[in-house]
Structures are given as structure tokens and as C-alpha cells.
Write a structure and sequence with these properties.
The structure is a homodimer. By secondary structure, chain A is of the alpha+beta class. The first copy, chain A, folds into two domains: about 160 residues, Nucleoside Triphosphate Pyrophosphohydrolase (Alpha-Beta Complex); about 60 residues, Winged helix-like DNA-binding domain superfamily/Winged helix DNA-binding domain (Arc Repressor Mutant, subunit A). In chain A, about 30% of the residues lie in helices and about 25% in strands. Chain A is built from six helices and ten strands. In chain A, the strands form two sheets. In chain A, strands 1, 2, 3, 4, 5, 6 and 7 form a seven-stranded mixed beta sheet that branches. Chain A has a three-stranded antiparallel beta sheet with strand order 8-10-9. The first copy, chain A, is elongated and about 60 Å long. The structure holds a DNA duplex (27 and 27 nucleotides).
Chain lengths: ~240, ~240
DNA sequence: CCAAAAGTGTTAAAGTTACACCCATGT
DNA sequence: ACATGGGTGTAACTTTAACACTTTTGG
């Protein structure tokens, strides 16, 4: 913000907010992607993208992220935090993406600086809802198709961040689990995040006696082996 | 980036890059601030700011940060990394700042989204250099004057990040130290960062036998006590 | 009684914390 | 000799990592 240069060489890029919305379906880590247009493998543009949009006037970045999230999931109070800004001048240069952008936005797009957000949600039927003009669906992060812009890179970077968070702030992971869960379910999410198996007993010591994990008097039903206990996550007891 | 909204409610905010450039002068942690205009306590606007400017067309965010840094320090290869984007619609609303902005940029400023960077540099004479039209000088982070926009907040948040980094990636701290330093100097920087005293012996164990710290055959001269050994930091030996 | 997953404890190693004395130098 | 900071070790405790058997349930 120095005077002498601003009127000469500066310009105003578009600013967008994109959300990496992660969930766990009991088996794999998934990311919510939105599709613009028909599902056609021979399409001229990459129709899969991170959910996001340009920033509105007078809208805070965090508010935009929350709004995108609410639009898609139909519910509020999800965990969401800013991850990082991506602003390479070439990130919108893929001809497929240019084609789509000019179609969608109806004007020449010089450049878009995007602020990426990381969000953790519970996968349920509501989040599979289809919205007018665009679908949103869950995709395994381990088998991502080609995505628009640098969205694959953004997801990859966010997943590294998530791995760190799962160790340093393990309570965040409950955002992805149902209100009642077994020790196995909890361990599986962590394994998906860190990419390798975790020792059952050591993992128990790490997490199961945190004050915010409370055992319920409920057990699995109709399983052909010893029934696992259910636990719940108690928000009020999180201490860092 | 969804088509239906972009043409209706979206707009293009200005995008800037601001650098929190931190250094250590042997006594305190300092931040490099630039002053626009005369040093006048009764000035109508806040003349002290983080060094930064609007983004140029075709300029990557990281490149902008590096450029700002090079302009001020006159040297390259400083440690610099993106910290976080700040985009509250009200961050440019302080009347003092509005006055300055309209003066400096010669146009109505609706809003500026800034990408804040964290940088660690060595304080020396070159970094005290004055540039045409604006001064830059080091200020103690513990006694910051009033700053423009939300720059005080940005600095506060960056300092929290630095505290984390000094523990998790202690090698970064050498960016702020001279090529040769004593164990005391090293400890003092860490104490400034974490805000309390550190036990001499425990700190030694923590840092002094990392492979990237190499003892030199040089000792302090002319001190009225046992001379302290000098060490240097060996870049190639950093392992995380 | 078999298959399948649940649940539970110990030991060794590494790391962390708290704490105190002698050494080298200049005045 | 004294004032100043330099430099070093140990013991208690905590954390981490590796590792295996018994329990419960349904078929």
C-alpha cells in the first residue's frame, strides 16, 4: 500500500473464496466437489471444482466461507477456518478453465486470487442434496478426478494441514463423526488422515481418556462378535 | 466461483500484500514499519504501517512479498512465508486511514483484502536505509504505536505464529541472528519470542546439539568474564 | 467351537523438567 | 578477591512405542 506505485502498475484481480469441505463416510475421507454443467467425460472444460464463488461486496472472508458451506449442507455451525490464499497469475490459465470461466462469468477473467478454507463436516443425506444449477457430491480424496484450476493442489495442501491438526487438535476430528461412534470408527478416521495403521492400544491411550470423550451405556446391536461400546464427544470439555 | 451470482453481487476488491518483517537487534524483537509522510504526532492519519502495496498484474503473491522485502532490505533470500488473508470489509474504515488512502491512491477505496506475510531478517545497517518517499524503521513489538488499518492485529497474530514456529521449527530463528552468535544471544531471541525466561541447561539440550548448530573456534574478546564461544548455523543440516 | 472384532497393560526408550556448582576473565 | 556471565550433569517424571492375550457375540 505505497502511494507511488498503486496508480501505475496495480489492478484489481477478482477475489474468490473456495472451500475444501471434508467428511468421512465410515470408509474413506471425502471432499465435497461441485459440478457445473453436464457430467460428460468429453466435456470441453473441467466441470468439477471446489465449491466457492467470488466475494460479495461488504462480505467478510469468513462469512463467505460459512455461506458457501450453508448453501451446500443446509446446516450451520460447521467447523471452518481459513487455510491459505492462492494467487498465482497462471492458476486460471488452463484453456479448459478459461472456456468455462468466460461462459460462466460472461466477461474476460484476468485473474482470480482465491482464499481457500478448510471445513470438516458430517456426511449425511442432506449434504447430498442437489441445488439448482449445480450438483455437489462427495469424492474420495484418494481417487480425485481432474479438477479445475489449481484445486487439486489446494486439496493436497489442505490434507497435509489436516494431518497436523488431527494430532495437535484431535477434538476437531469429531466434526466428521456421527454423534455416537465406536472406538473403531474414531481410529479409522485418524488412519485415513495420517495414511497408515495406528496401534489400537496406543491410540486408545492417546485419545480415549481425553475428558471430552464420554462413554455411553449403549453398545452395537446384532454384530457377530463382541459388541463395541458407543461414545459421544462433549464439546464443553475441550482443553488445549 | 458459481455462475449465477458472479454477475449480480460480486465486485473486485483491491488486493494487497503486507509483510510483517521481524528482526532481533540483540535486545528486543522488532518489526519493520514504514512511515508515509512527515513524522507528526498530530498528523491527521496514521502514518505508520506494515510495508506492503497493492498486487501488480501478473504478479504472484509470494513474488510480491519478496519484492517488498527486497525493496526495503536491499538484499534477497530472506525467509518469507504467507501467513493469512485479512479481508474484513471494515478494516479500511478508520477515518484517519480513509483520508490517507484517498490521498495516496487518488481514488475511492471500497475495500482492500490483504495477504499478510511473515518474514524473518537480520537487522543490520542496510535495513535502516531510507527510501525515496517513505522511511522504514524498526519498532519494538512490545511497544507498538498506533498503526493503520488492522495492522496491529496482524502483527499480534503473526507473533503467536512465531512462538509456535520457534518451538516446532527452531532453525527458522537463525534468520534473525548474525552469522556468528553465542548461546546467550540464541537463548535471548527465544525468550523474547515466548515471553518468558528459559532454563539455560534445558535450552542447551533443546537446541545446542542439533546437527545444524556448529561450534566455531572463536570466542568473545574483551569481556570481563569468561568468554562465550561462537557458533554458526549450517543450513544444509536442517532435518525436520 | 469357531470366527471376528473388542478391550485391556507392561516394559523399554526417549524426552522433559527442575535444579546448583565450578570456570574463566577483567577490574 | 570479586563480580560477571559461561558452561556443564543428574535424577524424577512423563511420554511414546512396541508388543499379545482374553472376552464377547453370532453363526
Amino acid at each position: 500500500m505505497q502511494a507511488e506505485n498503486t496508480t501505475l502498475n496495480s489492478f484489481d484481480p477478482h477475489v474468490s473464496v473456495d472451500c475444501v469441505i471434508l467428511g468421512y463416510d465410515g470408509e474413506s475421507l471425502k471432499v465435497l466437489l461441485s459440478r457445473q454443467g453436464e457430467e460428460d467425460p468429453n466435456s470441453q472444460y473441467n466441470s468439477l471444482k471446489l465449491p466457492g464463488r467470488l466475494l460479495y461486496a461488504d462480505e467478510d472472508l469468513d462469512d463467505a466461507a460459512n455461506d458457501i458451506l450453508n448453501q451446500l449442507t443446509g446446516s450451520q455451525n460447521h467447523y471452518v477456518r481459513q487455510f491459505r490464499a492462492f494467487g498465482s497469475p497462471t492458476r486460471t490459465n488452463n484453456p479448459k478453465d478459461v472456456l468455462w470461466l468466460e461462459n460462466a462469468i460472461k466477461q474476460k477473467i484476468g485473474r482470480i486470487v482465491t482464499i481457500a478454507y478448510l471445513s470438516l463436516v458430517r456426511i449425511n443425506n442432506r449434504t447430498h442434496r442437489t441445488f439448482a444449477g449445480h450438483d455437489a457430491a462427495w469424492y474420495k480424496v484418494s481417487e480425485l478426478p481432474e479438477l479445475a484450476f489449481d484445486h487439486s493442489t489446494i486439496i493436497r495442501e489442505v490434507l497435509k494441514e489436516l494431518e497436523m491438526l488431527s494430532v495437535q487438535q484431535p477434538h476437531l476430528i469429531f466434526e466428521m463423526l456421527p454423534p455416537k461412534f465406536t472406538a473403531l470408527q474414531l481410529r479409522r478416521v485418524h488412519e485415513q488422515i495420517c495414511g497408515h495403521e495406528l496401534d489400537v492400544r496406543n491410540f486408545s491411550k492417546f485419545i480415549m481418556n481425553k475428558p471430552y470423550i464420554v462413554p455411553l451405556d449403549e453398545w452395537e446391536q446384532n454384530v457377530s462378535h463382541r459388541a463395541a461400546r458407543f461414545y459421544k464427544f462433549q464439546v464443553g470439555k475441550v482443553k488445549l
